[in-house]
């Protein structure tokens, strides 16, 4: 329903869409995010449930920033994915949604994606000089060399690095 | 984080920096708040978190779907069984399966018990923080009974890991239902005692009314959910709004408040406990014998007896343990109404044994992010009341 509405109001914005197990997902470029958010907010999607990201290292646009919205009146949910390359930033939603503040800080902390216009973009879960971004796929599960003292082997995978 | 050492500028005037936490009796877990005070009035509050960050989402990418269940225990450890339920419901949505009726009913039963346990802790400890110790004792006696019930069902009091993908780890044992029935009566009485102690207590009123007030629009904008959102007057409860596990067949009400202050949150939680007791009674009335696990060898582990006697079961057992379940490629977001609010799991599957990405949407992170907004201009003693009523659980907050 809302997707047809977005198509009519902002033609050409949606680059991809799919429906899986009843979850409707749309993919939009980062340039259109703020226009879409303004539209969603007007249309009753006033509950920003979550912001997170997914790392696909083999893709050219490496990250998907994933937003989940809920319409409290109609209980309709919408997932919006914004692909970005490493080093690119996404516009911050803190102007419209106060809850975006910490969620964006968390994404910045764990993925290293920057948000333009965020008032206070600091790390949230790890400390300020934490090396790297923990949820990137190339960040080793055991933390890598910086967390191992000299002469210590990684506790997992017989000393091999890199997760599984 | 700014250094908390007093700089010259900070020494000007009457401003004082007070450091609450990371280990403080009223923070309920390790989190730190740097308060800037003018006299006793808070002018700035900087929450700092991450002390309990264990990288649950990262670990989840390296564990199979079943192996992630024990990690969900450690999210909101006051009501761990609800996290088990929320997570397995999400994986079942990804698989597109429906679990047997009895498993659904037992999940509802233990979820509501866990909701009561969580609210008991929240209300009881909130009262202790403000200085009312006695109510806590009445409430914790009931929490003990709930943990005894969990021990009977799951073998563990706190870290239950009771559910499995496709159902439950085992059926509830004999003696569970009579003890639950006794609990229903005793808990009702304890709630009455607690209300006698608090609801009309002028000191409790003074300490909680008008503290932490939030409007409905602001609460939604901050991403509030659960009792804190309902106390602000928004009747949003996923059990009614987007029913799962057959919640639409139970008869219960959603209490809402008007101002969203600490007192309203207390009232909402108290009434929710009553409603949970109602749901539990209905579950006990309609509980029918039957299987508690889906009958699908690709999902459910075969019984030990079959593994030892039948070739096919042995193969299924080996395949499930070594290769995991066959997962469809796709992504789902599934949310359940946990004690603190909307507990969401966003799972991205690339068809492998492990989830490609698993995201936990903790209900108390957005609530806690509004902390400065809530306490600014208030007194330092009120910060403790607000923090208690938000029910911040560090395990869930930091993951």
Automatic annotation (TrEMBL), chain A:
<keyword id="KW-0813">Transport</keyword>
<dbReference type="InterPro" id="IPR037232">
    <property type="entry name" value="NADH_quin_OxRdtase_su_C/D-like"/>
</dbReference>
<comment type="function">
    <text>NDH-1 shuttles electrons from NADH, via FMN and iron-sulfur (Fe-S) centers, to quinones in the respiratory chain. The immediate electron acceptor for the enzyme in this species is believed to be ubiquinone. Couples the redox reaction to proton translocation (for every two electrons transferred, four hydrogen ions are translocated across the cytoplasmic membrane), and thus conserves the redox energy in a proton gradient.</text>
</comment>
<keyword id="KW-0874">Quinone</keyword>
<dbReference type="GO" id="GO:0050136">
    <property type="term" value="F:NADH dehydrogenase (quinone) (non-electrogenic) activity"/>
</dbReference>
<keyword id="KW-0472">Membrane</keyword>
<dbReference type="Pfam" id="PF00329">
    <property type="entry name" value="Complex1_30kDa"/>
</dbReference>
<keyword id="KW-1003">Cell membrane</keyword>
<dbReference type="GO" id="GO:0008137">
    <property type="term" value="F:NADH dehydrogenase (ubiquinone) activity"/>
</dbReference>
<dbReference type="InterPro" id="IPR020396">
    <property type="entry name" value="NADH_UbQ_OxRdtase_CS"/>
</dbReference>
<protein>
    <recommendedName>
        <fullName>NADH-quinone oxidoreductase subunit C</fullName>
        <ecNumber>7.1.1.-</ecNumber>
    </recommendedName>
</protein>
<feature type="domain" description="NADH:ubiquinone oxidoreductase 30kDa subunit">
    <location>
        <begin position="27"/>
        <end position="143"/>
    </location>
</feature>
<dbReference type="GO" id="GO:0048038">
    <property type="term" value="F:quinone binding"/>
</dbReference>
<dbReference type="GO" id="GO:0005886">
    <property type="term" value="C:plasma membrane"/>
</dbReference>
<comment type="similarity">
    <text>Belongs to the complex I 30 kDa subunit family.</text>
</comment>
<comment type="subunit">
    <text>NDH-1 is composed of 14 different subunits. Subunits NuoB, C, D, E, F, and G constitute the peripheral sector of the complex.</text>
</comment>
<keyword id="KW-1278">Translocase</keyword>
<keyword id="KW-0520">NAD</keyword>
<dbReference type="InterPro" id="IPR001268">
    <property type="entry name" value="NADH_UbQ_OxRdtase_30kDa_su"/>
</dbReference>
<keyword id="KW-0830">Ubiquinone</keyword>
<dbReference type="InterPro" id="IPR010218">
    <property type="entry name" value="NADH_DH_suC"/>
</dbReference>
TrEMBL record, chain B:
<keyword id="KW-1278">Translocase</keyword>
<keyword id="KW-0520">NAD</keyword>
<keyword id="KW-0560">Oxidoreductase</keyword>
<comment type="similarity">
    <text>Belongs to the complex I 49 kDa subunit family.</text>
</comment>
<keyword id="KW-1003">Cell membrane</keyword>
<keyword id="KW-0874">Quinone</keyword>
<comment type="subunit">
    <text>NDH-1 is composed of 14 different subunits. Subunits NuoB, C, D, E, F, and G constitute the peripheral sector of the complex.</text>
</comment>
<dbReference type="GO" id="GO:0005886">
    <property type="term" value="C:plasma membrane"/>
</dbReference>
<keyword id="KW-0830">Ubiquinone</keyword>
<comment type="function">
    <text>NDH-1 shuttles electrons from NADH, via FMN and iron-sulfur (Fe-S) centers, to quinones in the respiratory chain. The immediate electron acceptor for the enzyme in this species is believed to be ubiquinone. Couples the redox reaction to proton translocation (for every two electrons transferred, four hydrogen ions are translocated across the cytoplasmic membrane), and thus conserves the redox energy in a proton gradient.</text>
</comment>
<keyword id="KW-0813">Transport</keyword>
<dbReference type="InterPro" id="IPR022885">
    <property type="entry name" value="NDH1_su_D/H"/>
</dbReference>
<dbReference type="InterPro" id="IPR029014">
    <property type="entry name" value="NiFe-Hase_large"/>
</dbReference>
<dbReference type="GO" id="GO:0048038">
    <property type="term" value="F:quinone binding"/>
</dbReference>
<protein>
    <recommendedName>
        <fullName>NADH-quinone oxidoreductase subunit D</fullName>
        <ecNumber>7.1.1.-</ecNumber>
    </recommendedName>
</protein>
<keyword id="KW-0472">Membrane</keyword>
<dbReference type="InterPro" id="IPR001135">
    <property type="entry name" value="NADH_Q_OxRdtase_suD"/>
</dbReference>
<dbReference type="Pfam" id="PF00346">
    <property type="entry name" value="Complex1_49kDa"/>
</dbReference>
<dbReference type="GO" id="GO:0050136">
    <property type="term" value="F:NADH dehydrogenase (quinone) (non-electrogenic) activity"/>
</dbReference>
<dbReference type="GO" id="GO:0051287">
    <property type="term" value="F:NAD binding"/>
</dbReference>
<feature type="domain" description="NADH-quinone oxidoreductase subunit D">
    <location>
        <begin position="129"/>
        <end position="399"/>
    </location>
</feature>
